[in-house]
């Protein structure tokens, strides 16, 4: 099995298009995943009985094979990008929901009491105290969800989407390894770069975790 | 929607669906065979590695990054790649499933080992225990709950992903998903998906029951 380098040179435009489409699908899924998990996590954090139910439900969704989720969505949204994004979003929920709940749990009770004592309203406490303090744990979830989504996009190749995953079916059908190797390499590269950027984003968003102590 | 679920019910309970070489019984056995064998092989590779990294503290960088790499590796691509290299054999299925399971087990084993209180390890060494005694009689039992979590996580993922065996013309419950996809037969796809999810949840519950039974004697 050897790489046909000239194929790569001939297909740089296609590869760019596929990579961007791949990235767009994965990032949309994480975005919508966050949009859904944040309110659900607040509910699960505040109302204990719902916590087990919501986390259990997201765990069960995670056990459904991804290819099956895509196919089952076909009657709803057809062979479209929407199907890909909905399917991927469902998978991000298990990580994002659990990490956001754990992040909110990790905020010390005394900090919340202090906010209350200063007359901060509950919703404002959530936005300005709890969520920022939960951010490191939430971001850990976002990193896992992003890398996982980038890897999973290729499964959508079975429903005619799938970004770089199209290179896998192409190589499979033509018995030609080059596109497959390139697809795997680009997926790994994309995941690596996205993860590094998220680490940088977290560094910027949580300055208090690494700010130098000023001398008194 | 109602009709779909009614048809699904009929599909799941009909006698002919359960018998024969394309029956649920046979496909279920194949699916379990792929999943359990792959998880066992992965555990045989990952457990010693995780214990070694955790015990010596060397290679922690590897343990942490392996998890990220494992998550990033596209399973479909790996299956096709091994298929093109090896031809029609079980290799693509097992390589992909083992590659999926190893990182989850290594990372959790390592995490369990690092969570062991250093004072406890010091005390064990201070009592004159050899390194293997510290590892197997102190660290391993204390790390076991997290190690089990890793094994359960790996097994769930492997069971869900073993569906892909059908893509390279093998059996398992994925047959229903891929055949249903080819025939635009949603009931069959849904049936396959439900069966896979049930198997994954059932195995997870069984392992967690086993875990509880094993640790019943231990004070919390």
UniProtKB/TrEMBL annotation, chain A:
Topology in the lipid bilayer: Multi-pass membrane protein
Chain ranges of the ABC transmembrane type-1 domain: 19-199
Subcellular location, record wording: Cell membrane; Membrane
Gene3D superfamilies: MetI-like
Keywords carried by this UniProt record: Membrane, Transmembrane, Transmembrane helix, Transport
Matching InterPro entries: ABC_transp_perm/SBD (IPR051204), MetI-like (IPR000515), MetI-like_sf (IPR035906)
Pfam families noted in UniProt: BPD_transp_1
Superkingdom of the organism of origin: Bacteria
Coiled coil: none
Residues annotated as transmembrane: 20-41, 53-73, 79-97, 133-160, 180-205
Main location: membrane
Family assignment from sequence similarity: Belongs to the binding-protein-dependent transport system permease family.
PANTHER family in alphabetical order: GLYCINE BETAINE/L-PROLINE TRANSPORT SYSTEM PERMEASE PROTEIN PROW, OSMOPROTECTANT IMPORT PERMEASE PROTEIN OSMW
Descriptive protein name: ABC transporter permease
Organism: Streptomyces ureilyticus
Taxonomic classification: Bacteria, Bacillati, Actinomycetota, Actinomycetes, Kitasatosporales
TrEMBL record, chain B:
Subcellular location: Cell membrane; Membrane
Keywords assigned by UniProt, alphabetized: Membrane, Transmembrane, Transmembrane helix, Transport
Lineage: Bacteria, Bacillati, Actinomycetota, Actinomycetes, Kitasatosporales
Family, per entry: Belongs to the binding-protein-dependent transport system permease family.
UniProt protein name: ABC transporter permease
Domain of life the protein comes from: Bacteria
Entry annotated with the keyword Lipid biosynthesis: no
Membrane spanning residue stretches: 32-53, 60-85, 91-111, 153-174, 186-210
Annotated ranges, domain ABC transmembrane type-1: 28-211
InterPro entries, per the entry: ABC_transp_perm/SBD (IPR051204), MetI-like (IPR000515), MetI-like_sf (IPR035906)
A Pfam family reported for this protein in Swiss-Prot or TrEMBL: BPD_transp_1
Its membrane topology: Multi-pass membrane protein
């Amino acid at each position: 099995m050897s790489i046909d380098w000239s194929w790569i040179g001939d297909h740089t435009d296609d590869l760019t298009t596929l990579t961007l489409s791949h990235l767009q699908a994965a990032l949309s899924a994480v975005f919508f995943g966050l949009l859904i998990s944040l309110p659900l996590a607040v509910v699960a954090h505040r109302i204990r009985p719902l916590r087990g139910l919501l986390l259990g439900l997201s765990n069960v969704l995670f056990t459904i094979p991804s290819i099956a989720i895509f196919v089952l969505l076909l009657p709803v949204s057809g062979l479209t990008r929407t199907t890909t994004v909905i399917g991927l979003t469902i998978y991000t929920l298990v990580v994002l929901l659990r990490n956001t709940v754990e992040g909110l749990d990790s905020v010390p009770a005394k900090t919340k009491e202090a906010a209350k004592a200063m007359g901060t309203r509950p919703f404002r406490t959530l936005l300005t105290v709890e969520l920022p303090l939960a951010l490191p744990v939430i971001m850990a979830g976002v990193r896992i969800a992003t890398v996982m989504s980038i890897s999973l996009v290729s499964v959508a190749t079975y429903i005619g989407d799938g970004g770089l995953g199209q290179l896998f079916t192409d190589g499979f059908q033509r018995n030609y390894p080059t596109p497959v190797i390139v697809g795997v390499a680009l997926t790994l590269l994309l995941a690596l770069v996205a993860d590094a950027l998220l680490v940088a984003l977290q560094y910027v968003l949580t300055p208090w975790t690494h700010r130098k102590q000023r001398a008194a | 929607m109602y009709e779909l679920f009614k048809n699904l019910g009929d599909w799941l309970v009909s006698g002919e669906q359960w018998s024969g070489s394309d029956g649920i019984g046979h496909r279920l056995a194949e699916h379990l065979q792929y999943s359990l064998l792959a998880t066992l092989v992965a555990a045989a590779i990952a457990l010693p590695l995780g214990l070694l990294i955790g015990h010596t503290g060397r290679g922690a960088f590897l343990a942490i990054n392996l998890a990220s790499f494992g998550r990033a590796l596209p399973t479909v691509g790996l299956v096709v790649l091994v298929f093109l290299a090896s031809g029609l054999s079980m290799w693509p299925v097992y390589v992909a499933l083992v590659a999926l399971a190893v990182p989850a087990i290594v990372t959790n084993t390592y995490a369990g080992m690092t969570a062991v209180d250093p004072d406890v390890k010091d005390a064990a060494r201070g009592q004159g225990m050899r390194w293997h005694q510290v590892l197997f009689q102190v660290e391993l039992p204390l790390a076991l709950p997290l190690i089990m979590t890793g094994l359960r996580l790996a097994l769930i993922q492997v069971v869900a992903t073993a569906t892909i065996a059908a893509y390279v013309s093998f059996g398992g419950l994925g047959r229903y998903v891929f055949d249903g996809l080819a025939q635009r037969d949603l009931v069959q796809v849904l049936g396959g998906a439900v069966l896979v999810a049930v198997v994954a949840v059932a195995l997870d519950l069984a392992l967690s029951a086993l875990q509880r039974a094993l640790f019943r004697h231990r004070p919390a």
